[in-house]
Structure formats: C-alpha cells, structure tokens
Write a structure and sequence with these properties.
By secondary structure, this protein is α+β, with helices and mostly antiparallel strands. The chain has a domain of 149 residues. Helices cover 60% and strands 8% of the residues. Strands 1-5-3-8-7 form a five-stranded mixed sheet. Strands 4-2-6 form a three-stranded antiparallel sheet. It is flat, with a radius of gyration of 29 Å.
Length: 432
C-alpha cells in the first residue's frame, strides 16, 4: 500500500474540514491585514506620496477611519445578502444545496477580502498621525485605497457568483461532476461478461464489530486502510451498511470473516462517520439531490417543468455512465489478488428507480416531462448492455401506464412522443 493510499482517510478528513470551515480562508486575510497594518506604516519615507497622493497626517487618519467604519458596515450588508441568497436557493431548489454554498471557496475569499481593508485601516491608525508626528503616511493610505478598490471588485464578483450558483444548469453541472467522480471511485470496473456472471460470495462465519461513537451518517470509508488491515490478518472484511446510511452507537459496522486477530481500532478508524452525506463515495446522494430539485420544480407551488427537464438531461448523462459499470456488490483485493473487502453499493435497478420513479410519479402530468422521460428511456434502451435492458423496459411500461392515467385521449398522443427538449425539440433517437 502506497503512502498516498495509507493517508487517504487523513486527507479526506482534512479536506472535509477545510471545505466546511469558514475560519481558515478568512483568517488568512485577517492575519495578512494585521501584518500589513504594522509593517506598511513603518516603511513610510519622507518623500512625496505614490499615485499622486500628498496628504497631511490628519487627512490620512480621516481616510483610514472612513475605510475602517465603512468596510465593517459593508461586510455586514454583504453577509446579509449572501444569507438571503442561500435561503432562496434552499427554498427554491433543495435544502441539501446549503452545503454547496458553504463549501464554495469564492464566498470565503470574498468575506476575507471585505474584512481585510477594515482591519488594515484600524491597525494602521495606531501608527499614523500621533502627537508631534509630521510624517506623511501616503503609502499607508494608498494601500488602504487599493484594498478598498479590491473589495469593491470582489463584491461585484461575489454577486455574480451567487447569482450563477442559482442557475439550474450551473447547479446540475456541479452535481454531475461530483457524481461522476463518485461513480469512478465506487464503481471503477467496467461491466463485462465475467463481472456480469460473478457468483455470490461464500464467506465463513463473521465476527461483528460495532460502532462506538457519535450517531451520524457513514459519509466515506477509508478502503486502503481496510484492505491493509484485512490483508495483515488474512481476513475478509464486509461492510453490512452502505455509505450514506445512518449509523448509531452499538450498530454492527463491520463483519470480519476468518483470519487471525485483527485490530478493531484500525478498522473503525477507516469508517468515517459525520453529520451528513457527501458525494465522495455516494453516487446515489448526487442523484438524490438532482431529483429533489426536479421534484421541487414540479410542485404546484413552483410549477416549473422546464427545470425538471433540465434535471433529466443531467440524469441521462449519469445513467449512461452507470450503465457500463459493474454495479452492486463491490470487491477489493490486495496486491496478491486475494479478496479483502466486500462492500454493498446500489445496483442498476435501484439507481434507475432512484433517478426516475419520483419524477415520473410527480411529473407525467406535464407534457414536457413525459416526453423527455420517454426520450431518456429510449436512448438507454438502445445503448445499455443486454442484461440491463429489462429494467429500462420496465420503466417504459410504467411511463406508458402513468401517461395513460394522466392524459385524456385527445392529448395522450402528444405526451407519448419522445422529445429531448420536452416540447418543440428533436423527436428521433439520438445518434452516437
């Protein structure tokens, strides 16, 4: 096992903490502002000011005081705007998107940029224009004005960023990228005849290892650590629960099959339990979030089927990616080819149901959604491996039944046409 593999869990925890933290990035700006506030006044010379500035000490103090007071008030205003945008996004799309706003580094950098001019000006005031001080603090004021201009530019960029994050296409694209990375990690093997015909595992009796700690969600598993620990003991470690499921203190978390004595502490450290699900090893969570946005759009209060159609565009891409992977039970082997870890994962039928069932249930009363669903399913039917076509055909049959219930005879024909844009688009199957 490489050093990088051995430190996977540590890097995951550190990355999660950094992504969630609103302390690290703003604190870097605070520290820089404090240092500059002490260093820059000490560098002042006796010559004329840069950028054409030529100020008396009293005028410089007035400018620094205005910068400090104004930026503190301005930062409060910006935080209020950001909170309103997050509330709107959570109400309009899904509460699960709050985590996306919280993780966005642009928002954290913007907050740091906003508070830096105020702190710099406050610290600089202590060294500018004291009793009997006739030194002209041109450099100090010039840097304060430069930081102020930078904050104004950052404000415009932040507003553009927040508005961009509220666009459905932008949200779907971020969710798609996260889901694709999770698919590559959880389902790394391509589906072929050998994997499709894999026999059920026959494992010896199991010794359970229970969770000892705070209740929470199994957000990720340090697979390299599990493989290493199981290989050292000559055992097979099985996960009875999936990533994304809720676990509580005393619940069986792992099953150890055969082998010599194994370090329970080493195994439990590989199980990362936190407050909520993440995309890292949980493709269904990304699908769940996309579906939630579509369902909110299809609710009577919103009534926005076009956003649901855009969700189906993203789901179609992900389902085609999943269709060619070896799904279901995952198996990890050590360097010698021995089976060491077995973990459960969603199979093709479960993923197809997760992606389409609720959208079909709530959306087939809309011509757009019914037509886009049909185009998605017909495209899958053409391209998925033969063992998986039966599940797609079942979804088509359910769609036909839903359309028959939802539309009267005069409108049913329009709803049964496959259309990649919902209404008014191309109706023939997509060509490769």
């Amino acid at each position: 096992m490489t050093v990088r593999a051995r430190t996977w869990g540590l890097r995951f925890r550190l990355r999660e903490w950094l992504d969630r933290s609103w302390i690290v990035i703003p604190s870097a700006y605070v520290a820089a502002a404090l240092v500059l506030g002490k260093v820059v006044p000490a560098l002042e010379g006796d010559g004329g000011g840069p950028f054409g500035l030529s100020l008396a000490p009293d005028s410089a103090r007035d400018i620094l005081q205005a910068v400090a007071g104004g930026m503190i008030s301005f930062t409060g205003l910006v935080v209020s705007v950001a909170v309103v945008v997050v509330q709107f996004g959570a109400g309009q799309y899904s509460p699960r998107l709050v985590l996306r706003f919280r993780r966005d580094p642009a928002v954290k950098h913007a907050l740091g940029i906003f508070i830096a001019p105020a702190l710099y000006a406050l610290v600089s005031l202590g060294d500018v224009g004291g009793p009997g001080d006739q030194q002209v603090p041109n450099l100090t004021v010039a840097l304060a004005l430069a930081l102020l201009v930078g904050a104004i530019i950052a404000f415009f960029l932040l507003i553009a960023r927040l508005l961009d994050l509220l666009r459905p296409r932008r949200l779907y694209d971020q969710l798609r990228l996260g889901c694709e990375r999770a698919i590559d990690q959880v389902y790394p093997r391509r589906l072929d005849a050998a994997t499709a015909a894999a026999q059920p595992l026959q494992l010896p009796g199991a010794e359970p290892i229970v969770h000892r700690g705070t209740n929470g969600v199994l957000s990720a598993v340090d697979m390299p650590r599990l493989v290493h620990a199981a290989g050292a003991a000559g055992a097979v470690v099985e996960l009875p629960i999936r990533v994304g499921e809720y676990v509580w203190n005393g619940e069986p978390l792992l099953l150890v099959h055969g082998g010599a004595a194994i370090s329970e502490r080493e195994l439990t450290r590989a199980m990362i339990v936190s407050e909520e699900r993440t995309f890292t090893q949980d493709p269904p969570f990304a699908l769940r979030t996309i579906v939630d946005i579509a369902l909110r759009a299809l609710s009577p209060a919103v009534n926005d089927p076009t956003t649901a159609v855009q969700a189906l565009d993203t789901l179609e891409t992900l389902l085609h990616r999943l269709a060619g992977r070896d799904l279901g039970i995952g198996r990890l082997h050590d360097a010698g080819g021995e089976l060491r870890v077995v973990y459960p994962a969603a199979d093709w039928v479960e993923l197809l149901d997760l992606a389409l069932t609720e959208i079909r249930s709530y959306g087939t009363g809309s011509h757009q959604v019914a037509r886009r669903l049909r185009a998605l399913l017909l495209g899958l039917l053409e391209r998925v491996p033969a063992p998986r076509r039966a599940a797609v055909e079942h979804q088509l049959a359910l769609l036909d039944a839903s359309v028959a219930r939802s539309f009267p005879d005069g409108e049913r024909e329009l709803a049964t046409v496959a259309d990649h844009t919902g209404l008014g688009g191309r109706t023939e199957p997509r060509e490769d």
